[in-house]
Fold each of these.
Amino acid sequence: MKLIDGKQVAAQVIEECKQEIAQLKEQGIAPGLAVVLVGDDPASKVYVGSKVRKCAELGLHSEKIELPADATHEEVLAVVERLNADEKIHGILVQSPPPPQIDEDAIVRAIDPAKDVDGFHPVNVAKLALEDATGFVPCTPAGCMRLLKEAGIETSGAEAVVIGRSMIVGKPMALLLMGKDSNATVTVAHSRTKDLAEVCRRADIVVAAIGRPNFVTADMVKDGATVIDVGINRVEDASAPRGYRIVGDVDFDAVSPKCAAITPVPGGVGPMTIAMLISNTIKAAKLAQ
Ligand SMILES: NC(=O)C1=CN([C@@H]2O[C@H](COP(=O)(O)OP(=O)(O)OC[C@H]3O[C@@H](n4cnc5c(N)ncnc54)[C@H](OP(=O)(O)O)[C@@H]3O)[C@@H](O)[C@H]2O)C=CC1
Ligand SMILES: Nc1nc(=O)c2c([nH]1)NC[C@@H]1CN(c3ccc(C(=O)N[C@@H](CCC(=O)O)C(=O)O)cc3)C=[N+]21
């Protein structure tokens, strides 16, 4: 079994970014990322903090905009419009999910598609479906594809099963796997899928993006399959330093011995998401010239 080291691949992506940042600097350009957080969800705060920290580390311009949990939809919209007009900002990310009074779809549509480094705007969703390379690919599935590539996993002709059909992970992941750069045969499973275990057992590549700890069990995975675990779940653990642990969607201990390759959680897909966000921000800065 090969453990796919997401931290290491993410560090490699960041190294590539550093070179591009240096080149842009010579032209007097500093890529800028704005991260908007509405409310005080502790997990979201952690992610937003690590995104902003990574930017600072790399000498990128970054701005963190924190709005209270009771901010109105119009207030969030006004922040997005200000950032759209700000020439120092090339990428805008509004942390998902926002509080219920915020219409997330409307916020995403308000972001200038050229600054939509999350790849959530309908223009970028369409560009992904059309395989138009000028669009932004959502960071998490882009990171998963890079992990498969770096681990030397053959996707062409492979049977891939993606569990989950969200616009953030499952659906774009399926599009990338079936695309001309990858050529997998893709099945997308979700909560209405019948005989999920049987569907999964066909897979050479399983991508788990459900949001439930230990959801993917050993009986669902074929011997020699590759498993990409996107899940980030907090489980209580009194003996852990913070009182909780982060686990994925895969029962790692039972599944990993059967796999050709598998990503751990933490240290798998998560670090790649941030690396691809930086990479998308650089792309946005370049396209803005
Ligand atoms: N590592 C990273 O960087 C990131 C990790 N994540 C993590 O990935 C996981 C998924 O996130 P996200 O896609 O946003 O989650 P969503 O809740 O938006 O989507 C979950 C998907 O899983 C499906 N599902 C739920 N229950 C079942 C079931 N019993 N059987 C089959 N399918 C089921 C749902 O089906 P249906 O559509 O029918 O409801 C849905 O399509 C979460 O743990 C999240 O924290 C997310 C983003 C980034
Ligand atoms: N607009 C928007 N864009 C996002 O990209 C987005 C979002 N909203 N909402 C929430 C999800 C989740 N997400 C993660 C990013 C990094 C880690 C990560 O770095 N995880 C580390 C450590 C996790 C920890 O210790 O807490 C790891 O897996 O090793 C996890 C999850 C981005 N998301």
Amino acid sequence: MKFLDLAKVYTRSGSGGNGCVSFRREKFVEFGGPDGGDGGRGGDVIIEAVEGLNTLIDFRYQQHFFAKNGRPGEGRARTGESGDDIVLRVPVGTEIIDEDEETLIADMTEVGQQFVLAKGGNGGFGNLHFKSATNQAPRRANSGQEGIERTIWLRLKLIADAGLLGMPNAGKSTFLAATSNARPKIADYPFTTLVPNLGVVGVDGVEFVVADIPGLIEGASEGRGLGDMFLGHVERCAVLLHLVDGSGEDPIADYETIIGELEAYGGELADKPRVTVLNKIDALDDEERGFFKEELEEASGGPVMLMSGVSGEGVQDVLRALRAEIDDNRLRYKKSQEEEEPWQP
Ligand SMILES: Nc1nc2c(ncn2[C@@H]2O[C@H](COP(=O)(O)OP(=O)(O)OP(=O)(O)O)[C@@H](O)[C@H]2O)c(=O)[nH]1
Ligand SMILES: [Mg+2]
């Protein structure tokens, strides 16, 4: 199971400019020789892996990328200006797939890596180029070479920044739908979410990726229910968002169940930064809110936030708390990557 982000883009490299037919014209020179310059090169389509992007969302808004055409050659042996390249900036980890053959064209694995997807067309030769011993005054010039059209898929295996945790029906999918571009299935029966959903969430001008995974149940770490299939994915998140259904029968027991599963799963999952939230507070009165908050804080040994994914109360604060953890963690992540041995084939 992979989280995939896909985008289809249409590209075209620039055509070369036409060569020029021209003859020198000077005072007192009756028959000037040919002086038509060559056309300029068309621009290339280049793909570049850059830092700081983690989704392909920009390619939902812009799907056409055309490099500029070269300019035609001119008299006095002037070569036409080259057309500008166009550069598609993609996140590291993006795969470039050919649309027709569905083959992998390139794998953008390093920051700064560039791949020329389509070269611009060559400019045509001007008539100056065709001057020879037998033909002193050629009237012939080449057209520029046509640009190349390529339709490709960009494919990115997403690494979620934040993973949603909680019992079935805790309101995870509702939260994701309310805060992101994702449209997960929501229902009032457990295990609505059968495959992980990803959403890009924005807060204070920063975007991050949240993964909604199927609800965990007791025994998930041993393979019961659907949760354990996905625990591996949240392992790579910077922060976990644990939603506790405040309208459930026993929110504290639900909380303990999930924590028990995290610990049983092993690895570093239980030590991962976690934001604990009492959800569905729209269904609670003030007294209940206070009571469960206190109980949960005692159980978790940390602060507990209040939220309703349905009414929106508290949602922004939760997003900010996640963002703060992610910012912290991304720095740490980068550091540990730098310390790693360079990869050897
Ligand atoms: N009152 C109230 N109900 C909510 C809230 N959030 C979700 N619900 C309801 O709770 C039910 C379950 O919501 P989902 O978002 O599907 O829960 P989930 O955690 O994704 O469930 P699974 O995918 O089965 O694990 C739905 O009927 C929602 O309408 C909330 O903030 N307040
Ligand atoms: Mg769900």
